[in-house]
Specification:
alpha+beta; 7-stranded mixed sheet; elongated; 410 residues
Length: 410
Amino acid sequence: MTPADTSRALANDPRFTGLVEAARALQPRTVSLRRQLHKHPELGLRLPKSQAAVLHALEGLDLHVTKGESCDSVVAVLNGAHPGPSVLLRGDMDALPLREDSGLAFASEEEGAMHACGHDTHAAMLASAARLLHHRRDALSGRVIFMFQPGEEGHQGAKHMIDEGVLDAGGRAVERALALHITATATSGVITCKPGPIMASADAWTVTVTGRGGHGAMPFHAVDPVPAAAAMVGALQTMVTRRFSVFDPAVLTVGRITAGTTSNVIPETAELEGTVRTLSDAVHEAVLAEIPKVCEHIGAAHGCTVKFEVNAGYPPTRNDDTVAARVLELAGSVLGPRAAPLMTDPLMAAEDFSYVLQKVPGTLAFLGACPPGIEPEQAPPNHSNRVHFDESAFANGVAMYAAFALDALR
């Protein structure tokens, strides 16, 4: 079957008839929940207000709902009218630790916390998708697991939920999974993804350079760690560009360099802190081996010793080729062909949906929500304290979640 034949077959499938219209009818609910979550953002694994808001949004639906123990997660299971496999839909709920400056009427009321990555929109769209699919459960052969996840922003919330059994919540192992991630720097309403690696691993590392302190006027009586640390910054950048292929990249950033207390004292230590991002296991292993090697040799040349520490983060997010292609087919048929461009390049940011995709064939896809009147490349990006999203895009997200489940459980 050609792509055009597939698109026509999906467009004529009665299960998808009126799906976008049904999602639009739920828009007041979606927006209301999103704004409630946005006004009261919470950080990390404990999100009692967010959990309560999601539970309230699911009231009245015939779902089997459970709450997490190690974190404030919500798992809701919808059983279809007919037996079949399990499919999982994920929406994360946690915020970021920054002060909001978006100017929105429903801006954060919590000091030092903001939904700057759109997780409020993810949870709201997922709750509306649960309602939409509940109304269409006669068309489902199997069950849908709705995964409302805390702690995505560096707290491994997905891992907590996997350990507590989310992938078997319906009594049968999940066979397919989807997460949507909103972005302010893409055309509103567009769904995009790609096969294979779509987001990177993320590791934090620290290098401590130790010399011998002394008087700033007499450096020859000291062993100065500052020039050694400075040399390491440039050498690490050169190492990445000369040791690793641009087609299987590594991104290394030194985000902090700290040394000394005043102008005329040579400190005993200097410290570098940074992050490294990779898309493959081989490069991930190799670059973490090269960082201490480079630093130790430079340190030795300066008469300093070096200590290297790494704080392992999320693994790469790898989409299943078949599932990613199917998501784009579904988006093109349900939302229109212009709403489903193929994503050309991965992002070097990280995402803990990677833990789900290590165990289940699935896809993370992006939903564009650039605010009206702004070009996508000019819009404040995710993680900016000024970011805001076009709420009209939410209906396409709700419809995409629903279409994925209806297609997987036909």
